Amino acid sequence: MRMVARVVAGFLAVIVLVSVVMVAVNWAPDRPVAELASRWAPAPSAFVTVQGMQVHVRDEGPRDDAAPIVLLHGTSASLHTWEGWVAALKTDRRVISLDLPGFGLTGPMADGDYRMERYVHFLTAVFDAMGLQKVVLVGNSFGGRLAWEMAAAHPERVEKLVLVDAAGYPTPSVSIPVGFRIAQIPLLNKLMEVTLPRNMVESSVRNVYGHPEKVTPELIDRYYELTLRAGNRAALVERFRQAPSGENAARIRMLTLPTLVLWGGQDRLIPPVNGEHFHKDIAGSQLVVFPELGHVPHEEDAVATVAAFRAFLGL
Fold this sequence. Notes:
Blueprint: H1 2-25, H2 33-40, E1 45-50, E2 53-60, E3 69-72, H3 83-89, E4 95-98, H4 116-129, E5 135-140, H5 142-153, E6 158-164, H6 178-183, H7 188-192, H8 198-207, H9 217-227, H10 232-242, E7 259-264, H11 273-281, E8 286-290, H12 297-300, H13 302-313
Parallel strand pairs: 3-4, 3-5, 5-6, 6-7, 7-8
Antiparallel strand pairs: 1-2, 2-4
């Protein structure tokens, strides 16, 4: 028995030692927004005060657009994911992109509330602060869910809706990025708040691309550094806990506005069958699938995807 106890004690000691070494090697404390802004918020970035938060926004294109285009990113992304679309659209249309609370440079919700109702309330306040009466609302993944939730709650504020690999149904994923999995595991998600292996971020980004070879070191830098923005990792844990996938799916059938559904055929996080569900549930919607692209098709191939969007708008 003593021998067994010694073996067990030795084994536990090794585990503790390995854990300590892993934490030390991957130690990555929060970074203040001021430290990150010089690289990730150059002109035309601005910060707009909304509900006690400094919201990172880019507002580009002609000021006389009656229905500006508003672009919403997905989980752990930022407004930068839309840069290809913005470049292609800003000559003709006013285009607004922003970092949603809990992500990018905007950082956590001031009140710690990450329910979908809270996000809709936040987005309404952004529209009011920027004088937006009616918009063309575009969203990817979690941002897609926020887009259709906003359209359902305030149809008078949304002229047209575009869902890009949007969340909404409780359909299981084929493959979940490792960072998202850890954020939903008790204790490990607490460890994630002070450590962040760069290779974990790389693996997560590559996981959502149809062509992982397109993922560059610069792209990994962006996802890695913005994840370190003070409060973002703790916010991610709360967002998963407070806004579970599929909880409001019945509202999707309420939508009657012109809707375009764009999907990556290689999306393993929110599989293409979800795009078919949106197309079926939203009367009169259009569905366009890009067979070779993944979960962020607008980022992976901005040229092809924005062309479909421009056709939808008649540009």
